[in-house]
Design brief:
mainly alpha; about 50% helix; globular; two-stranded antiparallel sheet; binds protoporphyrin IX containing FE; Cytochrome p450; about 350 residues
């Protein structure tokens, strides 16, 4: 999961974004508005996981049945997990919601294994997995290891609703902040041009693009926080915490607290850009951790960020987009998701 591993997929993600745009154009009504963009964001996220972790084009944006089933199953697992994980272990195997959750996870495993087996078979004939994470893992773990399948499975479980909902909020924040969108467009013009393609070098220069992503995830982190079990007796903020206690860091409370961020409700990517007058020095290094922290932090974060950068770059390069409906907030039932339809208007720039 080194930084370079994710950048290997820039061109693949660019192709997926072309498919995203085809789908978007089909979904637009006479006023060039899409009814709700969230589903398309999920489809893009799953297609991206397919390319990056399973070495396979799942054709979700093109409407594949596999994609529909996978999104449905993963979304259901996430919703049920909220209830299932709080059931005491001893009785869990007898509780219907838990049993259904286990069945769904089995289905997802079988579905991802089927694709991996096919990708490996094709690779033997045409070398199509050359350079991919999947091949590196197979080479490292050996042909009989289960680890590549487990990793792909984790990526499917952890990489659809997460990136999909984060993407939805990112687009919402840019759609409701036209001045910031314009500033990003100017950065795109300066670094890549109106028709140019993203490259590794260009991405390294695009500080405002990255700041937009970081700022959006600060305001609307889709993981409400992270949980750890105390490994030893400890004192936290004056409270005695016995070993074994579940401790939850409610990250969204810190990332939207004016103790740590000036005007915390405002979407202000400039606060992350050194040299901008609005740049803010961190008051607490742990105040904004949308991907968690430490050895158990999100393993997919570099991939997720690349997906988000490519999504935003491609859409802002091609369109001016706006939203004039009721304010959309975050609904935390399991993962955070938009509490209203992403009814966005897209006007072509040329
Ligand atoms: C914007 C999208 C995403 C967000 C916001 C996100 C967020 C998170 C968070 C908060 C955690 C828990 C970290 C902790 O406890 O410190 C996590 C764990 C994890 N994420 Fe992500 N994630 C995203 C996308 C992805 C993707 C695309 C993958 C695909 C590989 C992925 C795979 C995982 C895995 C496997 C874990 C468990 C890591 C472990 O327990 O060691 N995530 N993610």
């Amino acid at each position: 999961m080194r930084p370079k591993s994710a950048l290997f997929y820039i061109d693949e993600l660019s192709e997926l974004m072309d498919e995203f745009i085809v789908k978007l154009e089909n979904d637009l009504d006479n006023n060039r508005k899409v009814e709700d963009l969230s589903e398309t964001c999920y489809e893009y996220a799953l297609d991206a996981v397919g390319v990056m972790f399973i070495g396979t084009k799942l054709k979700v944006l093109q409407g594949s049945e596999y994609g529909k089933q996978m999104i449905d199953k993963v979304t259901r697992v996430f919703n049920q997990l909220v209830v299932a994980q709080s059931i005491p272990h001893k009785i869990a195997p007898y509780v219907p919601v838990y049993k259904e959750c286990v069945e769904l996870c089995k289905d997802i495993y079988i579905m991802s294994k089927e694709k991996i087996d096919a990708a490996v078979k094709n690779h033997k004939e045409d070398g199509s997995l050359e350079g991919t994470i999947l091949l590196k893992m197979i080479e490292r773990c050996g042909p009989d290891s289960d680890i590549p399948v487990v990793m792909a499975n984790d990526a499917l479980l952890a990489g659809i609703d997460t990136t999909g909902n984060t993407a939805a909020f990112l687009l919402y924040h840019l759609a409701t902040n036209p001045d910031k969108q314009e500033k990003l467009y100017q950065e795109i013009l300066q670094v890549i041009g109106a028709q140019g393609m993203m490259t590794e070098e260009a991405l390294a220069e695009m500080r405002y693009l990255k700041a937009c992503q970081q700022e959006s995830a600060r305001i609307a982190p889709i993981a409400i926080g992270t949980i750890r079990t105390a490994g030893q007796d400890m004192v936290l903020s004056g409270y005695q915490i016995p070993k074994g206690t579940f401790v939850m860091r409610v990250g969204v409370m810190m990332s939207t607290d004016d103790k740590y961020f000036d005007d915390p409700e405002a979407f202000m990517p400039e606060r992350w850009v050194r040299g901008c007058p609005q740049h803010q020095k961190p008051r607490n290094a742990h105040a904004n951790l949308p991907f968690g922290h430490g050895p158990r932090a999100c393993v997919g974060q570099r991939f997720a960020k690349l997906e988000l950068y490519m999504l935003l770059f491609k859409l802002v390069q091609k369109y001016k987009f706006s939203y004039d409906g009721p304010a959309i907030g975050i609904n935390y039932f399991g993962l955070g998701s938009p509490n209203g339809p992403l009814n966005i208007k897209f006007e072509k720039r040329m």
